[in-house]
């Protein structure tokens, strides 16, 4: 693994896939973070466009458009990207990829196999993934949950049994993010948590989200939550 100038207290971690493949990665940086992933020959990483920071000489990049049935009309309406970048190690030895968060944020690895194979995220929470991770978009069709804009309407759905990296976090809990602070909440059955809608980074599929206006109508008119 390339030696960083400095790194966070996060130590290099080795992800073991369901197929017993070992993939080391390390999260580097402080307020602005990137994830560095080691790839053996023929291994791949899928990332959102514009997130690449550096790659080794054996890594090749390919721009792949998401099949139309995985994107949906709401992806187009809200101007979200419909392509992904595939980083493929075509060399004979190990290579590495550095994927950077687009803004000041925490990068957390989520092993989907540990959380029922599915989580729901904010529209732009997905950063990159290794192995079996499918990124699609879902629309909350319950009228009581819908507010103007994509924030409370369109969500990313990550499904599969692979390793996903998302901005701000994700687990079998609600994850709250405020600037660089990530709070992990484990909800018992029937437990209710009230939080600002823009602070929810990701939830598992078993969590029901109901969006409500807080306070008088003038707050909605003047753009307050």
Automatic annotation (TrEMBL):
Domain of life of the native organism: Eukaryota
InterPro entries referenced in this protein's UniProt entry, alphabetically: AIM24, AIM24_sf, Trp_RNA-bd_attenuator-like_dom
Pfam assignment, any one: AIM24
PANTHER family in the record: ALTERED INHERITANCE OF MITOCHONDRIA PROTEIN 24, MITOCHONDRIAL, TRYPTOPHAN RNA-BINDING ATTENUATOR PROTEIN-LIKE PROTEIN
Protein name: Putative mitochondrial biogenesis protein AIM24
Source organism phylogeny: Eukaryota, Viridiplantae, Streptophyta, Embryophyta, Tracheophyta
């Amino acid at each position: 693994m390339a030696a960083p100038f400095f790194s966070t207290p996060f130590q290099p971690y080795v992800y073991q896939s369901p197929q017993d493949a070992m993939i080391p990665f390390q999260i580097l940086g402080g307020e602005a973070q990137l994830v560095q992933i080691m790839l053996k020959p023929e291994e791949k990483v899928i990332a959102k466009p514009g997130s690449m920071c550096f790659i080794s000489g054996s890594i090749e990049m390919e721009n792949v458009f998401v099949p139309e049935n995985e994107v949906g009309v709401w992806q187009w309406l809200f101007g979200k990207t419909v392509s992904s970048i595939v980083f493929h190690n075509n060399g004979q030895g190990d290579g590495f990829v550095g994927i950077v968060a687009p803004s000041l944020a925490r990068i957390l690895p989520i092993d989907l196999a540990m959380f029922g194979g599915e989580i729901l995220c904010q529209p732009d929470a997905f950063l990159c993934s290794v192995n079996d991770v499918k990124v699609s978009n879902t629309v909350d069709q319950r009228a009581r949950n819908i507010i103007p804009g994509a924030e409370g309407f369109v969500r990313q759905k990550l499904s599969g049994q692979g390793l996903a990296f998302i901005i701000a976090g994700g687990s079998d809990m609600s994850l709250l993010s405020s600037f660089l602070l990530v709070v992990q909440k484990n909800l018992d059955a029937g437990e209710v948590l009230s939080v600002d809608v823009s602070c929810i980074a990701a939830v598992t599929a078993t969590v029901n989200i109901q969006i409500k206006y807080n306070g008088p109508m003038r707050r909605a008119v003047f753009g307050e939550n």
